[in-house]
Amino acid sequence: MIPRRTLLGAALTAVLLALAPGATAVAAGPSPLPAPGPTTIQADRQLDVGPDAQSVHVVWSFYGGSPDLPLPVHQTFVIDARGLAGVARVAVVDPRCTADGQVFTCVNKDLSQLSNLDFTVQADAGAAVGATGTVTYTASGGPGTRGTARAKVIVGVPDLVVGKVPAVTHARTGSRIDVPLRLRNIGNLATDRRIAVTWAAAGGPVFDRKFSNCGYRTGDDPAGPTSVTCVFPASVAAGGTVGLSSPLTATIGAHTLNAEIDYTVALLQPGVQPDGSTEPGTGPALTLVPVSGTGAGFESGATGRLAVSADSSADLAATATTKPVTDAGADADADADGWTLNLTVTDHGPASVYAIDSQEYVAEVDVVLPPHTVATDYEHSESEDSAYGPCFVWVDDTTTAPFEAGHRHYVCAVPFGIGAGKDVEAVLSVKPDKSYDGAKGTATVRSGPAGIALHDPRTSNDSATFTFGAPADTGTERTVLVTGAAIGIALLGSVVLVLRRRGRSRQNPSP
């Protein structure tokens, strides 16, 4: 006879299965543990070494495959340099490591220790240039698989430097300019890795020739950053000089005033691609070819800069607007007697204006408030969508101090740059006293601490005047008075696109 409890349990199971169409019964039991994931080692696959000790950085990591499988607490990393006998020697200075000849065993005993290591390698005194060896890395810990990586070590160091490129002046907007390049290997070993050259332009030039071994990047801003990276498999002999089989060309955009093109050369590790997402070219391959002569000489390193100036100008216009603050609901912190002074500088183009290789401001507005008025505060925001330049206390014509309330003379900055068709603002909170009689103040644009020469053709209209209307103690209804003057400024100084905005303060900068 089957117990009633068993029959009820079976009936309940049947009902639950019937309520879940398509369900199948499974046998109860413990869930299997996830399989351990791979152990990885990040390290350069090729090391060029000379007589001086060279630093090497390696990183290892364990992947558990699931949050239910914790990382191993006890981790071992081994550097086996026995394959470098007669070629190079390794030295490790780390309290986690012990040495047995040229085998170094490094142990992490808890997860608070870093899973990376630095060591040095240098060529043996008697090693011939071009001699090779191998160093092997092994990481292990817990139930996971062991990770192994190897690096080829070569005696000798290739050292590529870039040639100097003369500046381009008086370029016409819409025209094309050549962007040449020369590379020289001043090291004692021929390059045996791929060579990557990157050109990064800011201020308006756009690379407009397409090569199949190059990747291109163009931003949304017409005067924004553009770049091209080309990868060459060619070898450059020690002491050899090469150039481009065909020059790159760049179009001078309509918003270009002054711009710069930085270029950099680097040797790529095996299997490594240049950083960034780029659009590939579709034309023929660009190659490196031998060249003779020194040209304009070479830089001391792997980076150079081409300066470009265009025959263009930027028309800046300024307006000064005053507004009474009488409603506490509009500004709960404002005194009922307060005013706001809004200074707007607009770039009517055609060129955009940006600082060159500087975090300083491209222009400033010198603000002198009327007698019997003082500033009490200012707004400051340098986000991408809303830029309000900071204001400083005027000390003299070359010095400012951090903002403080209670003064009449201030300098408000145009932060970092203005795109064509864009504007920036500075906003001061102002309070007149009972003796204010409606006198005018002035706002005058001048060159900022970035050092851009404004070449203003009409200095007579660089200033705007403003007033705060009726005296504060009359009790009459106050009227907003707005005065402004278009400020035409042909900016022929140097500019470069600043890639990001950020707020900051400065102590006594020189404008």
Sheet-strand content, in percent, reads: 35-45%
- Rg from C-alpha positions? 34 Å
Unreliably modeled segments: 1-27, 329-336, 471-511
Quaternary status of these chains?
A: single chain
- Largest sheet, described in full? 7 strands, mixed
Roughly what percent helix? under 10%
Number of strands: 39
Widest beta sheet: strand line-up: 12-24-21-15-18-17-22
Specify the structural class. mainly beta
Short synopsis of the structure:
The chain is mainly beta and 511 residues long.
Write out key terms for the chains shown.
mainly beta, 3% helix, seven-stranded mixed β-sheet, 1 helix, disordered C terminus, six-stranded mixed β-sheet, 511 residues
Task: Report on the architecture of this protein.
- This protein has 511 residues and is mainly beta.
- 3% of the residues lie in helices and 43% in strands.
- It is built from one helix and 39 strands.
- The strands form nine sheets. A seven-stranded mixed sheet has the order 12-24-21-15-18-17-22, with no helix packed on it.
- A hairpin with a 2-residue loop joins strand 32 and strand 33.
- The protein starts with a helix and ends in a 26-residue tail after the last strand.
- The N terminus and C terminus are likely disordered.
Question: Secondary-structure map with pairings?
Answer:
Blueprint (H helix, E strand, L loop, with lengths): L3 H16 L19 E4 L3 E4 L4 E9 L12 E6 L7 E4 L5 E4 L2 E6 L7 E8 L8 E9 L6 E9 L4 E3 L5 E4 L4 E4 L2 E4 L9 E8 L2 E3 L6 E5 L7 E7 L8 E4 L3 E5 L5 E10 L11 E2 L7 E3 L12 E8 L3 E12 L12 E13 L2 E2 L8 E6 L4 E7 L1 E2 L4 E2 L2 E6 L2 E3 L7 E6 L2 E2 L4 E10 L7 E8 L15 E5 L14 E4 L26
Parallel strand pairs: 2-10, 12-24
Antiparallel strand pairs: 1-3, 3-8, 4-7, 4-9, 5-8, 6-7, 9-10, 11-14, 13-20, 14-19, 15-18, 15-21, 16-20, 17-18, 17-22, 19-23, 21-24, 25-26, 25-39, 26-36, 27-35, 28-34, 28-37, 29-36, 30-31, 32-33, 32-34, 37-38
